[in-house]
């Protein structure tokens, strides 16, 4: 996994030169607190995000929890929740580092083939990832759905300026899109 600093060093080293793109590193540091806030917003709501995404996927396809469905019996449901949590965790790692290599190498590499071998329906998995993507954007903007969350609502409480979060929402969405693309 490469963060902005490691990427700058590797790039400079490959051309046998000194690090010259200091402005990109300055931007990475300047946006560091917002990046940390975004990761914290996702991580502190991860459990609810995962369970809501899987529940949403099941609501749209009730056959998953019927006998013979891919979320039946409880053991398979637990595996589904575990896999969604792993995907979300690696998306937050990528968002923290500003680099998708950890997501690609440790989560997505061979995921589609593994799911095919296990008979996991990728369309349902893709739908759960799409739901988590929408939730992550809402949490990064600090605009989670109050009417649905009820007493479990966790807002970060930091004032959010829309244009300052747009780049992080876009970046996080890109990581979720990588997962969707890897499964499709």
Automatic annotation (TrEMBL):
It comes from the Bacteria. Belongs to the phycobiliprotein family. It is a peripheral membrane protein. The keyword Electron transport applies. InterPro entries: Globin-like_sf, Phycobilisome_asu/bsu, Phycobilisome_asu/bsu_sf. (2R,3E)-phycocyanobilin binds at residues 33, 37, 70, 75, 80-86. The modification N4-methylasparagine is found at residue 70. Signal peptide: none annotated. This is C-phycoerythrin subunit beta. It is found in: Cellular thylakoid membrane.
